[in-house]
Write a structure and sequence with these properties.
It is built from five helices and 16 strands. It has 246 residues and is of the alpha+beta class. Helix 1 (15-31) links the parallel strand 1 (2-7) and strand 2. Helix 1 (15-31) runs parallel beside helix 3. The chain starts with a strand and ends in a 5-residue tail after the last strand.
């Protein structure tokens, strides 16, 4: 199975523009055989905690219908990023669009202290079924704790799908931590980071894939938008620039 990590920047709070950019990535990923694509943390609004309450959309919002339509048409599972309103407050969500199926959402379970004024933690522990793989979603800060991945592995996950918004320091720490996750737990790890302004920092790319023995298979640079395609059967990965708009 082919999985894709999309490394891109987002327009602050502009869901319509960001949906359009997501659709271009989804189309390109599907055209090269991806069955799953993951985007960076809060990709549909940008990582902008201070506007999360105003920018939040429910999972059933018609603004998200084009993403479901693309998933249905192209046969690709899409894991994006969005502040989600819930009875327990605004959560850092990962809406999941599966071909021909109801929308699902995962929400970040462990928040960084900087996020506590804006968000509430999620509680879902569901895995994503894709082909014969069981995929565990993870969002940034929580993915840096081995216990999060270990819990997923105990529930049968074989792929760790990580959506982040990280600085250069955070990316460096991730590139040390995720190979350890892969080696110790036997998980394939795919990480998607953003580039450009994100909240009060500059996101530093470095989206990457590691096989279940912790070997780095491919990595995007610190500043360019692009796609990383991982072939789980062959144990190989490659990177490609985003297609220019028509």
């Amino acid at each position: 199975m082919n999985l894709c990590a999309a490394q891109l920047g987002s327009f602050k709070g502009d869901v319509a523009a960001n949906v359009g950019r997501h659709l271009a990535c989804i189309e390109q990923a599907a055209n090269v055989g991806a069955a799953v694509i993951v985007f960076p943390e809060l990709s549909l609004t940008g990582y902008e905690p201070s506007i999360a309450r105003q920018a939040a959309l429910p999972l059933g919002s018609p603004h998200l219908d084009p993403l479901q339509a693309a998933s249905d048409r192209l046969g690709i599972l899409v894991a994006a990023g969005l502040p989600l309103p819930t009875p327990n407050g605004i959560q850092i969500g990962m809406p999941i669009f599966t071909p021909g199926a109801p929308r699902q959402a995962y929400a970040k379970q462990r928040l960084h202290e900087d996020e506590l004024p804006y968000f509430n933690a999620g509680v879902s522990t569901s895995l994503i079924q894709a082909a014969h793989h069981r995929i565990a979603p993870a969002i940034c800060y929580e993915s840096m704790f081995m216990a999060h991945a270990a819990s997923a592995q105990e529930r049968g996950a074989d792929i760790y799908l990580v959506s982040v918004a990280k600085t250069a320091k955070g990316v460096s720490e991730g590139h040390m931590h995720y190979p350890q996750v892969a080696r110790e737990l036997g998980l394939t790890v795919l990480m998607a980071n953003c580039v450009g302004p994100a909240g009060e920092f500059l996101a530093a790319g470095g989206s990457a894939a590691w096989d279940s023995e912790g070997r780095l298979l491919a990595c995007l640079d610190s500043h360019s938008e692009g796609l990383l395609l991982l072939d789980t059967e062959a144990g190989t990965a490659s990177v490609m620039p985003l297609d220019a708009p028509a």
